[in-house]
Structure formats: C-alpha cells, structure tokens
Here is the input.
Amino acid sequence: DVVMTQSPLSLPVTLGQPASISCRSSQSLVYRNGNTYLNWFHQRPGQSPRRLIYEVSNRDSGVPDRFSGSGSGTDFTLRISRVEAEDVGVFYCMQGTKWPYTFGQGTKLEIK
Amino acid sequence: QVQLVQSGAEVKNPGTSVKVSCKASGYTFANYGISWFRQAPGQGLEWMGWINTKNGDTEFAQRVKGRFIMTTDLSTNTVYMELRSLASDDTAVYHCVRDWGAVTVIADHWGQGTPVTVSS
Here is the structure.
C-alpha cells in the first residue's frame, strides 16, 4: 500500500497568518494517464470530510482561493494564505492513484 | 445538486451484520462509482471499497475483504453496503462517497455518514 505521511500533525496558527501542510507518499502518485490523483480534504468537528483540492492543485467549487495545492511525484503541499476561524478542523491528504486509497494521518489546525 | 443520503444509525451485537444504504441524486448515477470509507471514533479516515455502479465491478481493502459486500440498484440510484462478522473495532461512522466510474473523479461528494456501534 502507498503510505502517506503528513506533517505537522498539529498546527496552531494565528488568525490571518499563513499555514502550510506537507504530505509525502511512499511511491510516485503519477497514474498511467499522466494525472496525479492527490486530494486534500478538510473535516470540521462533527461533519463529513469536504474535498478542497483534487489532482494536486485544482480547487473544488466554492473553495476560497486562499487555499492552494502544489507538488509533484511524491511531495505535496497545501497552503492557506490567511487562516480564518472556519478553517479549524483536520486536514487530510489522500492518494487515489493506486488501490487501496490511503490517507495521511491528518493535521489538526487550531487557532492560537 | 449532488446528494448522497445514507440510512440511519445502527447498533449491532458482535458477530452480526449491518447493512447501510446510500441514495444518490442530482447526477447521472451510472456514470460514477461509489466508494465506502469509515472513521473510527477519534481516528483518521479509512477506505473500505469501491463499486462501479454500472457493471458491478468492485475493489476491496484487504482488511475487510471477504466480509464486506457492496451492491447497487440502478432503478432507485441506491448503493448498499453490508459488513458481516462485526467486531468492536468496526465501530465507526461509515460514509458513501461519489467516486470514479465512466467519469474520472475521486471522492468529490460525501454522504452525511452512518454511525455504526458494535457492542454487546
């Protein structure tokens, strides 16, 4: 299985400041069609996860442009340009390139 | 709009089975697959399996293979999952999620989740 490793696991951030989460995979996530199926999800307490970013860097509909994704191969990053109160929760990276889908451990963002 | 509506919470005894439904609306059902994920209390997310709603092809996580069944009903746009031989570590919230099929999309819309508690 592809192992996904996120860091940090805990992320205290001051409102309005930037934040960054790293996600590394144990194998390349480039699929045979050339696409890279690396997604980012956000889960607020008590809610279902919501997909924010698909295929490394594409924002889902309705996702604020302060969220951005980047990376390639085995190394990926989610950036929040200015953290807002609604960003509290857990962020997960997930690879959808190879069965079984696998997730990072999750990064818990809290407001300082 | 895309919606996945799951059946309600379940409490089961160890060794029994649970069946959860997931009714889809707002899109062409047969063009997408459905994956099932679960999340144990206080834990991360785990993918369990995927079904192609058009032809019934499936993929399973090794951990549940052999006791996890997925079926689809094209007449009602509903997918069912059944997990057998329940144990306490199957206690989790189970989510159905729209996933790839004829259209290549990965986990873009999630159901509200169905809590399953396994306890004697």
Remarks:
- The mean pLDDT of chain B is 96.
- The beta strands of chain B are 3-6, 10-12, 18-25, 33-39, 46-52, 58-60, 68-73, 78-83, 92-99, 114-118.
